[in-house]
């Protein structure tokens, strides 16, 4: 059974009851996700970036969330503030009030006028659009799961009626399982880096098995590890495939040719052009 939601689609995966996948629609069109809102174009994970990406006509925004010490869900990739903001230290060690004067940095490292958004603000931006939100739930600076982050994220998403438009992603199978435990109907994505495959000395198609074991409907795999073996195994398992982070045109064409369902890129403008959109 397939059903459309906004510009993208989910599929209820055969053989995996209740595990929706973030995948291409019945028309088979490859979907484009703006990685961190389009990190090569604007300050990453800023509201400006996500707003501009929506203006390009992307199918998905892709973002990351952390938890402050006072339990606020904020939008940021790193577990520390140092690289992408004017702040310092772990996100989990500061309060929302501490972040009031923090500004985001651009790709060149220079401070901008953009501030660090709350997830609530990003959801409010997404809601009136037709786009969906690939939402990665991060771990803290010690690589531990934030206590209660899945509950808080789900509550914010559900309060805005966006559960059907928000696949939840994580590199940790426990994160994926916790989301599914709290909300069995949620679409989930297991992220797998090439380094994990190399460290465990397994073929890339093994990532499909990990995805199924975690109960996720979609595999989000580093594009350099994507090959025909992954695609074939995913199709047999009823698992969708998202490839990250694909920024060069030749790599985009390779990923599209292999049959990925979602292309995640810091250059969504180029991805849309390659796809003729």
Question: Can you give a write-up of this model?
Answer:
The chain is of the alpha/beta class. The chain has a single domain, classed as Alpha-Beta Barrel (TIM Barrel). Helix content is 30%, strand content 23%. It has helices at residues 47-56, 119-126, 149-159, 173-182, 194-200, 206-214, 228-237, 249-258, 268-274; strands spanning 2-5, 8-12, 20-23, 31-35, 60-67, 73-75, 103-105, 111-115, 132-137, 168-170, 188-192, 218-222, 240-244, 262-265. The strands form three sheets. An eight-stranded parallel β-barrel has the order 4-5-9-10-11-12-13-14, surrounded by nine helices. A three-stranded antiparallel β-sheet has the order 1-2-3, with no helix packed on it. A two-stranded antiparallel ribbon has the order 7-8. Helix 1 (47-56) runs parallel beside helix 2 (119-126) and helix 6 (206-214) packs parallel to helix 7 (228-237). The longest helix has 11 residues, at 149-159.
